[in-house]
Amino acid sequence: MSNLQFSVNDESDNDQESVLEFERLESTLPPALKRSASSLLEAIQQTPCPATPTSTAPNPQGVAQPLHHHPLQNELNLKAPQPQHARDNYYQNIPGRNASATPNLRNTNFRQHLISKLSKSENGRESSPIPLPKPNFNDSIYTPALNTKQSSTGVLWATERAAEYGYDSEHVGEWANLGQGAPEHGDSIPGSFPRPRQISLPEEYREYAPTAGITELREAVANYYNHEYRANKASKYTYKNVCIVPGGRAGLTRIATIISDVYLSFFLPDYTAYSELIATMKNFSPIPVPLKEMDNYEMHLGLIKDELARGMGALLTSNPRNPTGNCLTREQLSELHRMCREKCLLIMDEFYSHYYYDEGCTGSSISSAEYIEDVNQDPVLILNGLTKAFRLPGWRICWVLGPEDYINALSSAGSFLDGGSNAPLQHVAVDFLQPLKVRQEMKALQLHFKMKRDYIIGRLTKMGFKFTEKNTPNSTFYLWLNLSHLPGKLSNCLGFFHECLHEKVIVVPGFFFLINPQNLAHMEEIIWYNYVRISYGPELHHLEKGMDGIERILRRFGCLQ
C-alpha cells in the first residue's frame, strides 16, 4: 500500500491521486494495449466538447480551451478514439496547432489534464488509499533468459487489477466477479445431478494415464457424440477418434503444435487466449478476419468463402461464440462444413455448445459433429469437455474429436507438451457421459442460465441499455455489452472497468478480445473501446451484486434512466 496520505477534503490531492491511480492501471496493460490507452488519452483531448456557455483558459500547451461548468456535459466527453485522419482534421481546427503534432504524454500537467477525465474522485466517490500494483518482474533480480515483456491479458489481467483493490479469488466477500469465464459449480441448480464429493482411488489410478486418455473415457465420449449427433450417420466415432486433454488450452496447444505451413484464419473478436497461443507458435501464418459491429459480429459464410479463396488452410473459431454469446444456425453450420470439406481444417471450439437457448431449453445442443460426413476423412477437430457443460472447470478434463491421423498426432504432442490428463478424474468422468443423463443435465443447465441471462438483461434494460433480438445472446453465458451511449469515461471499456473496480465489480474490457498476436493492428482505430464482456456464469446473488454496483455507477454519473 502507498505511504502517501490523501485527504478527502483536498481537491488537488484527489486529482493527483486520480492521475497516479489511472497511470498505474494503464502501466499494467500489455504493450499493444498500453499504446492503445495512450492513444485513448490523446483522443480525449482532441475530441471536440459540446457547445456550452463558457469562458476560456489556456491548457498546458497554451492553447485556449473552454472551461465548462458541468462535468457531465463536457469534462467527461470520452468516446472511442478516432482514426488518425479524423484526429488530424480536428487538429486543423485548433488555432496555433500543427495538424501533425502529437501531444506530449510525458508532460505531467498535460497527462493530468487528460487522465483526470478517467479519475477516481469524480461524481461523488470519496478518496481512498491507492493499492500499488507490484511490478510483473522484480528489476533488482537478474533473471537470465526470462521474457520480462510478457504481460497478463484478458480475465487474468482484470482479476489482477481487482486484487490490487482488495479482491481475493478464494474469499470473494462483497465482490461480484462478472469477468471470470466459468459457470457456477455448486449443487443448487434444480434438476442437475450432484457432483461427486469423494472418489475412490484404486492402486492402478496412480499410474500415468495414456497421453490420449484412458480408453474407457475415450469410448464414452465417442458413444455420446454418436448417440446425440450421428444416430443416422453411417460413419461413427470410436475411441480412436478421441483424445483426452488436460483442459481446453492444452487441447488448443496440442492442435497448434501439429499443424504447419498453412494460413490459419480466425475471427475478431474471439476468445482472448487464442492470441497468446497463436503468437507462441511459428509453424503457421495467422490471418485475422475482423467482423462488423453492425452485424453484432456475426460470422457470415461469405467471409469464409473469401478466406478460402485466398488460401486459408485452417480456421479456428468458437461456436457458440465468446464473447458475443451467439452461434451459427444449423443451416449455416452445415454449409460451413460443405465449403471447407477437403479444403480446410476446421478447429471448432464448442465449449459452450450446451449453453444453447433457441430450442426451448430442452437439453438440445449444437455441434459440428452432426454435419461431418466421414469422421476419418472430414478435416474437423472439435474441442469440448467437463469445464463448461458439466460445470467442473477445476477438473481439467476435456477432449478433442477428429480423424484418427490427427488424434494420433495429438497424442504424440501430449507426450512432450503436457503429459496427459489426471488419471483418477478420467475414470470418474466416464459415468457422466451417459446420453440420457447428459440430456437431463443440459436441460437443467439451460433453464437456469437462461433465467440468469434474462435477469441481467432486465436489470440493464431498466438502466437504459438497449437490447434487440440481434444483440441478445442465444448461447454461452456472456453478454457483449455496448457502452457507447454512456457519458464520458463510462463509454470507454477501460474507464468503465475502472469505475467497476471501485464498486467491487469485475468485467473484462472489450479490447482484450482483439486477437492481435503479432501486434500488427493499429489499436487506436479499433472500436472495441466501447464494449465490455459480462459473464452471467456466477451464482444469482453475485449477479445481483454486480448489477447493483453498475446501477450505482450510472446514478453517480447522472445517466441512470
From TrEMBL:
The keyword Zinc does not apply. It comes from Candida maltosa (strain Xu316). Signal peptide: none annotated. Its cofactor is pyridoxal 5'-phosphate. One of its GO terms (molecular function) is transaminase activity. CDD domains: AAT_like. Residues 48-60 have a biased composition (Low complexity). PANTHER family: ASPARTATE AMINOTRANSFERASE. GO terms for biological process: amino acid metabolic process. Residues 177-517 form the Aminotransferase class I/classII large domain. It holds the Pfam family Aminotran_1_2. Residues 48-67, 87-107 are annotated as: Disordered. This is Aminotransferase, putative. Belongs to the class-I pyridoxal-phosphate-dependent aminotransferase family. The keyword Kinase does not apply. Keywords: Aminotransferase, Pyridoxal phosphate, Transferase. It comes from the Eukaryota.
